Amino acid sequence: MTDDDNGAMSANTAATSSLNGTVRLSDWGVIRATGADARSFLHGQLTQDMLHLAPGQARLAGYCSAKGRLLASFVVWSRGPDELLLACSADLLAPTLKRLSMFVLRAKCRLSDATAELPLSGLVGDLDGETLPVWGQRSAAASDLIRLPDAAGRPRYLWAGADVPALPALALDDWRWLEVQSGVPRIVAATVEQFVPQMVNLELVGGVNFQKGCYPGQEVVARSQYRGTLKRRAFLFDSDAAAQAGQELFTSADPGQPAGLVTGAAPRPGGGFSLLAEAKIASLDEHLHLGSTEGPLLRATALPYKFPAEA
């Protein structure tokens, strides 16, 4: 390791440890589901168990096409027996709401856009007066405060509502970088229908329940889990150049065929970019490049969780 590498790591560690504050998440939105059948309806549509989601819990979930490809991903939590809230990428809220509404039929479930009423904010750091030590816990107070998976050693929270706790301002790019570092995929417009859940590790972060009943694409997702070896997974990378969701990855060994796809990217504290990208597992033995075989070289970094074979 060179002196430059050591200097970059020290600067990056210092920058990460100082991340603290709150930021409005303008690229997130909220869908509200209410009614006596809200839970059973969503239980039959999403990859997660909605029937047993307690008021003090939050869970990750995916919404798949009939081919098992992710149309959207959510953080879901309960406000009571007949009300669920689903946080998702803002650029997918309208089409997702429209598609889900098509299947409500006679179910007693009303779906609506609750973003204006419950704008989302991200909080990073230790919060006074709240003890939410475990990812997925929701505050017992009136506010919708949810502990998200930690990232780069920093505790993260999702807050729904306008009355945000008084904390320093956090840059949106810093929040997005932590989101990438968490290894939790968020489906956006640029990546719709590109991934089966396992290709972006959704089942590894608790977003797929294999004991629940059927949902769109369930047979494909189950086959991916129980038959054969997965050939694609999501990995963390660093790059010296800018990256964005939807960009393809290539190797010189097969320049005519993309080896992967970026699911999310953000500027890295201290310079450069970090990205979470789906890639062929075999391609990790090659040099992966962003955009083309002549594009920026990617450097693999460690995920915050292990694959089943490593556990």
Any descriptors?
311 residues; alpha+beta; Gyrase A, domain 2; Elongation Factor Tu (Ef-tu), domain 3; 2 domains; 6-stranded antiparallel beta sheet; 30% strand; globular
Please characterize this protein's 3D structure:
It contains 5 helices and 15 strands. Strand 11 (248-251) and strand 12 form a beta hairpin. The chain has 2 domains: 19-181, 2-Layer Sandwich (Gyrase A, domain 2), CATH 3.30.1360.120; 189-301, Elongation Factor Tu (Ef-tu), domain 3 (Beta Barrel). The protein is α+β, with helices and mostly antiparallel strands and 311 residues long. The radius of gyration is 19 Å and the shape is globular. Residues 1-13 have low confidence and may be disordered. A 6-stranded antiparallel sheet has the order 14-11-12-13-10-15. A 5-stranded antiparallel sheet has the order 3-4-5-2-6.
